[in-house]
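User: Can you model how iron/sulfur cluster sits in this protein?
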Amino acid sequence: MDRQDVLLETTDLARHYPLTRGLLRIRSGSLRAVDGVSLKVRRGETLGLVGESGCGKSTLARCVLGLERPTSGRVLFKGREVGEWERKDRCRRMQMIFQDPYSSLNPRKKIGAMVGEPLRIHGLGARRERRAKVAETLGLVGLDPEHAGRYPHEFSGGQRQRAAIARALVLEPELLVCDEPVSALDVSVRAQVLNLLDDLQERFGLTYLFISHDLSVIGHISDRVAVMYLGRVVELARSEEIFKAPLHPYTEALLSAVPVPDPERAARPVRLTGDLPSPSAPPPGCPFHPRCKKALDVCRTTPPELKSVGERGLVSCWLY
Ligand code: SF4
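Assistant: Here's the modeled complex, given as structure tokens:
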């Protein structure tokens, strides 16, 4: 990957939270939410991040946006350490879309005021120009500019998420971090919001880091997919490769749970036994081994590295 094309890069990124016990708050260990993640995101691409709840996807997103300080490792945005960016500059260039538009929008503020707020905070344009920009942005996301005077409760779930997207877009950012942006929406509305994100990307050359626990959603929107398990990336490949022939047994299990709209093809779900282990006490060796049906002896003692499998991508598994 050409360095010039890379908009976002993480190198060995880790975020550990100290665990304490007793009144004296004696350190008893650490919770490894993100544990050595190296990723590159090209300009204009969508990198999907998929994994079960609690695998560290959202913590990774918060580190990328500079909202969390990494315990170790680096996050570079446009070749510069994220922590070195002025907060205002960083916010202009990177924005986030949250899962639940109902709680991410202030119920006491009108949609127009909320979408225009970032422009006001950043001192961009006079009042009339800001109002015009808000109307233009609402139009871009498929909302009627006339609705700027309405409150969030007067909108449907899909319309509220469109308003949240408008607020993220109004500063014309380069990177959008989308954290489960369609999980709270009905299935029919999901497709509309995903198509809207697709259109906006094509029109403005946006780059997305798209987080979801749902591989079918990730497959719809992503160019490449990184599969996370217990704070680590276990497989990374182009979206079509992941769907055609997943390599890692965990990816295989996630994929087998995606419903297939074909009555001729019987679903054969790969059942995962047990829960996701605690990130404060990850199993030794391969962290997936207690749930893996293909585990070898070496898997119980030695963690596999994330290795290149030719053109296919990267996988962290002793089978390859
Ligand atoms: Fe399963 Fe071993 Fe591969 Fe881990 S390294 S996914 S335990 S086969």
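A couple of observations from the model: The radius of gyration is 21 Å. The longest helix spans residues 187-204.
User: Helpful, thanks.
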